[in-house]
Amino acid sequence: MLYDPTERRIRSFVTRAGRLSTGQARALEAYGPHYLIEYRKAQFDFHAPFGRTAPLILEIGFGMGDTTAHIAKAMPDKDFVGVEVHTPGVGSLLKLAGEQDIQNLRLIQHDAVEVLNNMIADGSLAGVHIFFPDPWHKARHNKRRLIQPPFVQLLCQKLAQGGYIHCATDWEDYAVQMLEVLGNEPALQNTAEGYAEKPSYRPLTKFENRGLKLGHGVWDLVFTKK
After folding, report:
1. Which alpha helices (H) appear in the chain, and where do they start and end?
2. Which of 15, 62, 114, 218 has a beta carbon 3.0–4.6 Å from 82's, enabling a disulfide?
């Protein structure tokens, strides 16, 4: 993680500018006002943008958003908030959401830790999705990985009783670390004996399919709050 002197902590991501495609740029302009929630250092009523009270699922680091859009469409009875720092990914998911009229989805372009600390009420989340976070695969960079005990404790604080954390990774040593960190959190209970079967709601990505055909592993972990 990278040290941030303003928040006195280390960050789990590197901000990359990236190139916006024409479609992504148009989506930011056309759909941003409807789907984007502005970050603020104050607790936010996440039911208000949806106009209803429904189970709220937070996705951290949604990448280009294909999986997020798929899951939101498949679960219309739940509301989803995706948090991502990279503008091309935000533009990509805005394009999907706007063109497919996905109304149970909103986005925040900001650091997830600050969103959790400042905007999300304790005990308010029904679930958290963290799919294929940066593995920081070099040993000297492992401390930058997102799934660490203090972060998991923060997630537990924001989860309602019975709420779940679903992580997935294609790096085996990160999967081992995830299992150890989540398994050592006293507020959590594993839903499986070790790694979980991939829940049906999480689609296989093109990258994941390609990896599986080459014999690469993918590990899902699903833990619930006691």
Report:
1. 22-35, 66-74, 87-100, 112-118, 149-158, 172-183, 206-213
2. 62
